[in-house]
Amino acid sequence: MTNAAQSIKPHRATMGIWYEFATRHRASIVAVVILIFPLVMPFTALAVNILIYGLYALGFNLVFGYLGLLSFGHAALFGTGAYLCGIAIVHLGWPWYAAIAAGIAGGLLMALLIGVLAIRTRGIYFAMVTMALSQCVYYLFYQAVDLTGGENGLRGINVRTIDLFGLRIDFINPMIRYYVIAAFVIAAFFVMSRILASPFGAVIEAVRENEMRARASGYDVTLTRLLTFILSGGFCGLAGALQALHLSIVPIEILHYETSGLVVMIALLGGMGTFFGPMIGAAVFLVLENIVSVWTVHWQLIVGAIFIACVLFFPAGIWGTLIARGRR
Amino acid sequence: MAGLSFDLIALQLFAGLALGAIYVLFAIGLSLIFGMLTVVNFAHGAFYMVGAYVGLYLISIGGNFWICLVAVPIVIGLFGLAVERVLIRPLYGRGIDYPLLLTFGLSYVMVECVRIAFGKTGYPFDTPEVLQGAVDIGVGYFPLYRLFVIGATAVVLLALWLFLEKTSYGLIIRAGARDPQIVRVLGVDVSRVWLIVFGIGTAIAGFAGLLAAPLQGVIPEMGGTILAEAFVVTVVGGMGSIGGAVLAGLLVGVVVSMTSLFAPEMAKVSIFALMAIVLIVRPQGFFGRAGLMS
């Protein structure tokens, strides 16, 4: 990590050594946890979901936690990534790696389109405009039946084997599928760590902390916001592409505003603006959802109530609360 | 395009105004609450939906539509008062995003509670007998109920306008929207004003849900769609401006209805295109204060 990242973390001296170690090697720690995770987690399909939603939340957290803008339209970025990856495979017959690239490109492009409009507004409007625009994207994909399958979703994204430098890997095997997806997620975490540690990452947080001062220091606030939103789109697009490969279908609900709300809940639950928060949030949220949905079909009631309690009593989230405890 | 007469377009315009009337009612509540409390009520769609279901319930136990018109706003308004007092008040001063997030979670809870009580599938909602049929409005026959929706919206708007502009309590509310600090210094309990404004806003949302029910039936998810569309209305009209909400609500209704006549496949998307144009040309909306947006 460069000095830029460390200098913006306050009270470094008062933190425990464990925390400094965790900050320095944050991406590596995530990698180790992800690699051993399926060994302690009995349900591999759930583990894959946690990976994908963790990545989705990671991308969202860049805008929500680090840039300080609440977006309620991230489903559009996630969904576009999934749809473009699926379309590349089903309609164009592209190989899996090209399809993933198409998914990332889709996320970036959609973030550019939404970002250019939404960034003209601020604060509370940003949430409203992003939500409205993502609803527009939902209708557009819903109506393009030839390309997206409309209401039925995009079916037939069958990737059975993955060719890697002459090696044929069986993508049906759940354990192998987990590690293939994990490779991309871990790579994304390293890239995110690098972005946050770069001077640009410091500018992102400077804009959040004090927009006037950032502008006075000569930084282009609007451009920073737009670039960050686009970067976030790349991460969410990748998450969407992996979701398409994992499910072999892209349901239209992926673009629904509840998918946008889901990532807001995950990020807030885990701890916004923290590096580990999104992954912890995704794990806790999805495991909780799994347990509650076994017990009752009305899991949304429980989830909504827990979310309300979080906003009222633990706005810093699980990891944020732990950090605050550690600093005392 | 041979069948497109002036009369047909005029009729479609009226249909758009009726649709717009629902948007207006929904958006003025949203705008009123935001203008006073700076809270974006993400549960506004849920209040709207519960309003329709309360109407459904009252009719099923023997009430009629006219009783509902009075009872639904009262019930939803009281519920809104409780929500503000218990859930939203602790969040004042904690950043503008938190009430938004809380009301979002609340909308999950409300939708799921309605699903538990009434089931997941929707219900049809009968148009009251007196309001069935159509009347000749000069350019052709127009459904009487839609005319009633426009009229009822006008009455609510007039009442709200009189309350805000002509009563001393309305004066306090308008002053509180300008500068809550000064109002507090003058000895007014601002938090009570906020409580009442939230109650009024949600009561109007419940009323709008009831009015919309005979037009489209009731399902637990009916609030989510209109919420996104109401955001378009508030962005186009200018957030916090009631006049803007009225004008933009009617405009959005007319745009939807006109595009469904000329290009049906674009009807859903057209209003978002409208919002995009407004954001590029005039980001603060028709009547928005420039400072709020930038």
Verbal overview:
The complex is a heterodimer of chains A (328) and B (294). With 328 residues, chain A is mainly α. Chain A has a single domain, classed as ABC transporter involved in vitamin B12 uptake, BtuC. Chain A has helices at residues 3-7, 17-24, 26-40, 44-67, 74-90, 96-118, 124-143, 145-148, 174-197, 199-209, 211-216, 221-247, 257-270, 277-295, 299-313, 317-327, and strands at 154-155, 161-164, 167-170, 249-250. Chain A has a two-stranded antiparallel sheet with strand order 1-4. A two-stranded antiparallel ribbon of chain A has the order 2-3. In chain A, a hairpin with a 2-residue loop joins strand 2 (161-164) and strand 3 (167-170). Chain B has a single domain (6-293), classed as ABC transporter involved in vitamin B12 uptake, BtuC (Orthogonal Bundle). In chain B, 74% of the residues lie in helices and 2% in strands. Chain B has a two-stranded antiparallel sheet. In chain B, helix 1 crosses helix 9, helix 2 runs parallel beside helix 4 and helix 2 (44-60) packs across helix 9. The longest helix of chain B is centred in the first third of the chain and has 32 residues, at 6-37.
Helix count of chain B equals 12
Instruction: Write down the overall geometry of chain A.
Output: globular
Cα end-to-end separation of chain B? 44 Å
Gyration radius of chain B (Cα, Å) is: 19 Å
Global morphology of chain B: globular
Number of domains of chain A: 1
Low-confidence blocks of residues of chain B? none
Strand order of the largest sheet of chain B: 1-2
Name the chain pair with the biggest interface and residue counts per chain. Answer: A-B, 38 and 46 residues
Q: What amount of the residues of chain A lies in strands?
A: under 5%
- CATH level-two architecture of chain B: Orthogonal Bundle
| Structural class by helix and strand composition of chain A | mainly alpha
**Oligomeric category:** heterodimer
Order of helices and strands of chain A: HHHHHHHHEEEHHHHEHHHH
Helix fraction bin of chain B:
over 70%
Helix content of chain A: over 70%
Rg of chain A, rounded, reads 19 Å
Name given to the CATH architecture of chain A: Orthogonal Bundle
On the 0 to 100 scale, the average pLDDT of chain B is: 88
Number of domains of chain B: 1
Strand fraction of chain B equals: under 5%
